[in-house]
């Protein structure tokens, strides 16, 4: 089985968990699992980040709180109640934003549903993912890692679309997975942060499409 060494954190096998793959010679790349965290504070503002310019895919783009993938290790492969995905999310919240895992417990993370999408980043790299959507509502201390995050800010529900429009006016676009969630789900979920259980759907994988941008 082919494998890649990923920043010294062990091996990620190409057939299931690698987030970024060389897509030369294929339009689809490798389908793999990923997760997207949407963290809200007690004012119901969403924490956004601008991805570092050093990122392989979609560098410099604004996106939701944290986006990554589980490693090929037992703790992050456990499927019961999406425990592996939630553990991976806590790990990456710390790596990217300096959020202490003690501040966000497994029980603080709500697994809502999954989306399936694919999008090229450039002629070489792209994404082809089953993306687990995770919500957290908690006040946390953040200390963004400049190797991962260029900028971070909280945005209210009423300000998110004007913020995205202002980015577009500057020739910037948000990440494709964040765009799909904004266009299809985010506002209804955001309006019901205190009653998310009715949106929990662990059987459906929503197949969404996005254009190259």
TrEMBL record:
It catalyses: isopentenyl diphosphate = dimethylallyl diphosphate. One of its GO terms (molecular function) is isopentenyl-diphosphate delta-isomerase activity. Its cofactor is Mg(2+). Keywords: Cholesterol biosynthesis, Cholesterol metabolism, Isomerase, Isoprene biosynthesis, Lipid biosynthesis, Lipid metabolism, Magnesium, Metal-binding, Steroid biosynthesis, Steroid metabolism, Sterol biosynthesis, Sterol metabolism. Pathway: Isoprenoid biosynthesis; dimethylallyl diphosphate biosynthesis; dimethylallyl diphosphate from isopentenyl diphosphate: step 1/1. Gene3D superfamilies: Nucleoside Triphosphate Pyrophosphohydrolase (3.90.79.10). Its EC number is 5.3.3.2. One of its GO terms (cellular component) is cytoplasm. It is an enzyme of class 5 (isomerase). It comes from the Eukaryota. Pfam families: NUDIX. The keyword Cell membrane does not apply. One of its GO terms (biological process) is isopentenyl diphosphate biosynthetic process. The keyword Metal-binding applies. InterPro entries: IsopentenylPP_isomerase_typ1 (IPR011876), NUDIX_hydrolase-like_dom_sf (IPR015797), NUDIX_hydrolase_dom (IPR000086). Residues 30-180 form the Nudix hydrolase domain. Catalyzes the 1,3-allylic rearrangement of the homoallylic substrate isopentenyl (IPP) to its highly electrophilic allylic isomer, dimethylallyl diphosphate (DMAPP). NCBIfam families: IPP_isom_1. Belongs to the IPP isomerase type 1 family. This is isopentenyl-diphosphate Delta-isomerase. It comes from Haemaphysalis longicornis.
């Amino acid at each position: 089985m082919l494998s890649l060494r990923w920043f010294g954190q062990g091996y990620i096998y190409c057939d299931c968990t690698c987030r970024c793959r060389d897509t030369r010679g294929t339009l689809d790349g490798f389908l793999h699992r990923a997760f997207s965290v949407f963290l809200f504070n007690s004012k119901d503002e969403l924490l956004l980040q601008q991805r570092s310019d050093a990122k392989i895919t979609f560098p410099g783009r604004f996106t939701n709180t944290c986006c990554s993938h589980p490693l090929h290790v037992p703790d992050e492969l456990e499927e019961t109640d999406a425990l592996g995905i939630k553990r991976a999310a806590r790990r990456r919240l710390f790596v990217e934003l300096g959020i202490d895992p003690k501040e966000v417990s497994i029980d603080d993370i709500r697994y809502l549903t999954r989306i399936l999408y694919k999008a090229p980043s450039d002629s070489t790299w792209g994404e082809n993912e089953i993306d687990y959507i995770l919500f957290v509502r908690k006040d946390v201390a953040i200390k963004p890692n400049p190797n991962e995050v260029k900028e971070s800010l909280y945005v209210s529900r009423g300000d998110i679309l004007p913020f995205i429009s202002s980015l577009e006016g500057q020739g910037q676009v948000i990440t494709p997975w964040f765009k799909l969630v904004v266009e299809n789900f985010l506002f209804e979920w955001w309006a019901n942060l205190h009653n998310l259980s009715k949106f929990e759907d662990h059987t459906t994988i929503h197949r969404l499409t996005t254009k190259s941008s």
